[in-house]
Amino acid sequence: MHPTLLRVFGIEVPAYFGMLAIGFSLATWVGARWLGRLGHDKEVVIDLGLAMVLAGVLGARLLHVLADGFFWDYVHLCTDPSKVDWHISHARCVAPAVDGVWDEARRLCHPKERSCFAWAAFWAGGLTYYGGFLGASGYAVYFLRRERFPFWKAADMAGFAIPLGLAWGRLGCFLAGCCFGRVCTWRYGARFPAWSPASEAHFRAGLLPSEGHPALPVYPAQLFESAGCLVIAAVAYAVVAQRKRWDGQVFVFFLVGYAVLRGLLELLRADDRGGLLGVSTSQWISLGLLAAAYPLARALRARSAANAAPAPSAG
Fold first, then answer.
1. Contact between residue 45 and residue 154 where contact means Cβ atoms under 8 Å apart
2. Domain that holds residue 214
3. Is residue 239 domain-resident?
4. What is the pTM of this model?
């Protein structure tokens, strides 16, 4: 765990956002080169990428607030902080980094100050990939139509650019200690230090006497997802994109590949992610995307065939 990637002129660059920026830059560069070779305007791709980052962060934060199980905490932070329960130890509660109010009767910690804008503090952590994907996709539809850019060719570019960027983002998650996996006995299990998200979760579960102890070994779910995304990006770029028969095929491959990967990896994750009926929010979205992939592929194939058919001759 290394939450600070580097320091520039005394300013700390968080590992998560640093790795995300590297992944975004690399994905934009690769995607722009690919579309440039096809004769399209690379500047449109760069402008689109920059705007999608903003839309993606907004969507990622909103889905976290609404669906990760913290909605009422954010409401109470603004209205009555005493209703927000932090299951951390007394030592952690009164430490300068937290500066909370200890409730001895309930053995819980509460925030000291009201904050009506905590929900917007994305830099403090709390972003969901699927929220970012939906937010960025929605903006892309608007932007590409405005620019009269072929949407499904851009979507095919995203089919390998998104998992490439996401692979770097998950490395940032590993360095930050978020998105950790379940406790394991695997010899290569990841060990996060004291006061990490994993050690705090293990303390709440009664597995550690305090968050001041190193976390138990857990599955490195972040690294598994990073590796899986690299495989999806490589196959999408080197195989599917080179042999595609219709526009949108690479994007559909990515949708299916990532939905399967994420749905399986959710079984190994132990961080708070929200859910319903024992199925996490991300698994529900993955199921929805899998259900939509087949009719989308059929529609895109039919559209391609209709565009390729010769026009009927005048009688």
1. yes
2. 183-218
3. no
4. 0.84
